[in-house]
Automatic annotation (TrEMBL):
Organism, as annotated: Paenibacillus agaridevorans
Family the entry assigns: Belongs to the glycosyl hydrolase 28 family.
This protein's name: 3-keto-alpha-glucoside-1,2-lyase/3-keto-2-hydroxy-glucal hydratase domain-containing protein
GO annotation (BP), single: carbohydrate metabolic process
GO MF entries: polygalacturonase activity
Amino acid sequence: MTKKTISMLVVLVLMIAGALPQPQAAHANGNATIQNYPMPSIYTASSVYSVRADSQSVPVISYMPDYDYAQFSFDGTVSIEVTFNAPITSYSISPLAKNIEGTVNGNKLTFSLSSSTYVIVEINGLRKRLVIAADPLETNIPPSSGAGIYNVTHSPYNADNTGAAMASGAIQRAIDAAHNAGGGTVFIPAGVYKSGNLTLKSNVTFYLAGGAVIVGTGKGEDYTNDFRKTSRNADGTYFIRTTAGSSNITIRGRGTIDGKGIAMRERKMPAPNKNEGFLNNLLVPMQTSNFNFDGLILRDAGFWSFMVVRSDNVTIKNLKGFQDLYKIENDVIDINESQNVLVQHSIAISDDDTYSTKTWLQTGMSSGWPGALEQLENVVFDDAFAWTRCVAFKIGQGVAQAQIGVTVRNSYVYQSARALLIDHGYTMNTLPEEGYARRITFENIDIERVDVNQFGNYWLGISTSTSGDVSDIAVKNINIRQLGAQQSRLSGNVTRGGMVKNVMFSDVYVKGKLATNLTDLKVSVINSNVTGVTFANSRPLLFGDNFEGGNTTGWTSVAGSWSVPTDGGNNVLSSGSQTITSLITANAGNAWTDYEYEAKVKMAITNANAGIVFRVQNANNYYMYRINAANQMLELYKSVNGQMTLAASAPFAAGSKKWYNLKAVVEGNKIICYVDGQAEMEWTNPVTELTTGGVGFRTTSAGVHFDNAAVYPITRFSDDFEDGNTTGWTSSSGSWSVTADGSKVLTQAASAAA
């Protein structure tokens, strides 16, 4: 890519001491340091929710029928109190994978966070959720005045901060002045700034303080006409864009860019475009290098909200993209024909796709993009949270040029119609060579809901509608809580010759059970143009049961009354309603020796207990590892000929109505006991006994739930190369390295002698 190169003038800024404006002030409260922000005057407070972070009231903004939202920044451990407008009978806090548990008292829900987290709270099954954006603490807040600072409300700019008059002229003059000086910070304090188009320029930091909002007018005639979208029969504008060929631009803060996009899209334009709406993208880095975004809220775009075009070395952090859930073609973020892009720690809510990558021809809405066509390469979505009625993470429907090395990792799907999609659907390509998609990785993703039927309802789709191939796909460490109503599919194109090649599934769990084949995943191979589908699970499963069959087939009830009720939409094993000794054992595993056994347990009351049993030989001989909530202890027992002996114990703060993952690793006479992945105690039996046997559950409490039983052989050695090096390996021949892109795989760069 050819970009305009601009040398930077390095300015030594002498910081002037003084109090920061109130919106950015940091306050210490208990264990947390909190930065709170005033609610902009154009917004109204929620009538459903209120929020406190430690002792501070946090504004909750009334927004869409489906959700209101709150925002603050913090460091440390913060206690969040949500007050609902009615008594609370049920709740959930997503991402569920974070296992955030709260306590309820009347109409108040309280929970804690120890690191920056974006959460969606659902109470009493109400349609309107609460989104809480708990951002990381801002540590580099610029001063509001001084050398290199261009405060838009100060002379000579004097921008109106009440929303009464247009402020874009003043803001643009400040941007131009900072750029012409060789660089600087444009400072926008809390307030409302009604704005037309803005253009960001090289070497400028655009700082939008918490409580500041740049808001559109809602009238298309106030904006430049930058593109036409034929599917919407409307023209559109880039609300805030960069100059083509620019570099070293930063836009950051805790403020808001509000496009008033849906109102503008549905409002009829005056002549000559009478009866048409007008669209807007909120932020468009256009043919720029070294672009950095951090911390803003982007809300209410009439079209794709954040559109990165033909740019390189782009970093986007702490993005909050808040869109309407019932207005199609309102994606949150689309990466187009760009290279070396990182999107990290974000939440995106929209009707259409939340996260997407695309490559286009120079036609239609992209006909005015500067420069030549480019391929897309090395794009990473990391720690991304998606809520959509279409696709959560999509590669394609635009693969005119190659897309190489796209990674989605450490991410979460709250709701979607389709969770993960590679769709080589660009069927009108006139280029000499068809584009392709290669080295696509979906890794460490938790999928909660796939329950919307909009253009399909399935968790995974990998396909090509052209002669272009889709190849080298890794789907690994995925937890699927819901598969969708329809069959997922892998599909090449027999007519045009496009192939889907080399799709690897590794450690994909469906409702807690490890998938070992496509049937487990509800995936179909549609045609013969699909090759190289493999499973490469890191640990072969000896035994597993998530009880989704609705029965206890494969188990023997030794004592008590066991059943399989539902809990949170999933089938679970339950000990029944009586406070008696209940023991159930799996029929498999009599000859097992060394293994790992793990399962989830949940106690209904605080004085209950829940245990997993292993090396079970019969009703009187086994080991048991349990949570004893009544004594707030973890306990390891051995039962030999019916005599139960406490072998080891450790203090543990156990609660009720919370899932815990218990794991016991037994190797020879040594036993290591875990809770939620953390080793809690280790004991070695001085007597060689209980050397073989299967697994099961035991409790003396009523209403204890168990789920996701899994037995694995002990892993002697493993390396997924995620540390990016070959430490622990010795190369005898050849040139070995770990790829630097998101796939992190071991490769040989040169051929070696046989």
